[in-house]
Amino acid sequence: MSLYSTPILYLNMGGEMLYVLRQRLKAQKIDIDKTVQVLDEVTAALLNPKVLSPMFEESPMIGMPHLRTILESVALSSIMKLDANSMDKLFDLMTMMVKYQLTAASGPREIVLIMLNHIDGMRDMVSDVNAQKCVTLVQEMVVDFYSCLTFDEIWRARQSCLRGLESYNVRVSILLRRGLQNEDASFNITPQRYDERYMEHKGTLATLKIKDVSPETCCGGSFDTFGDRKTLLGKNIYLPTYGIMENAKRDSQQFLRDCGVKAELGMLAVQLGTEETSYERPFTLNLLSNVDDENVNNANNETDSEGKSVNQKNAENGEPKLNEDYKAKLDNVYADFFEDEHEGLTRSMDLLDLLDELE
What we know:
Elements: H1 6-27, H2 32-46, H3 49-55, H4 64-75, E1 80-81, H5 84-104, H6 108-125, H7 129-147, H8 151-165, E2 171-172, H9 173-177, H10 198-205, H11 244-272, E3 299-300, H12 324-337, E4 349-350, H13 351-354
Helix pairs in contact: 1-2, 1-5, 1-6, 5-8, 6-7, 7-12
């Protein structure tokens, strides 16, 4: 079993939890102050160095029951109440979305980009300055940790994650509506703009470290803080703009190219005297509407028994070590962020109400 799987599961599932909470808070028209408070508190708890640092240690993958316990405690750090039924629904959504993303991933570099997309989503949701710094530090940890691994090591980490998620089979309405899942809970893997085709190039890339290979060799995708990840996997699928901006940008670029060609041909026709009418260069104004469609998600809560990981240690050499400086920095940021953490908190929001439309 891979020694590098735990951060993949923890950060991706934590990111999906925040996506669901954000969507339900908005759908339920929760007061903006409470919404900000919930997202800040859950994000800070998710990235708490006492919880996060052990995740980046080289060890066999965390068991799913243990991971659920940790994520449940993270959700309880906010002002929301939480019962078993609520956590069941939330955990099913997190699990199936991450299972789909890892199944659809086209290569090891995309595995890292999926994590960075979730971290970008966290950064967009938190408002506190110290929490923002904490998110940036976590992104640096991910890049430093996985850039030192080979393509094959990251791919095997993905395989370990999928084995841990194998027993979870829940139908999620948003995946069904988008044609990404079948009624039997299996996935439809549709072609995407980002495609590493790793299995085709495995022979030459497997033993190379991620940091030693040009991003363009693997279909691009930036590891920078505000870089273009290229892939949609790991972005907030509950947003009405999910996938639209990428397609609109691509369509717009093609439209402009077509207009340019027509303009040049038109001017050439005028110059050659084959066109008697005057020619005007086309002018395009694109006004995008702000239509806010709520995504209401529906999960069939028919989950198999939880899969247990097999603790097999992988005695590999040259494995990356966690930089202790990150832990110290995270401790400082977390201390600043939670200076008055327990003052005046009233747990007045019931997560079951927030998830009441997730069947």
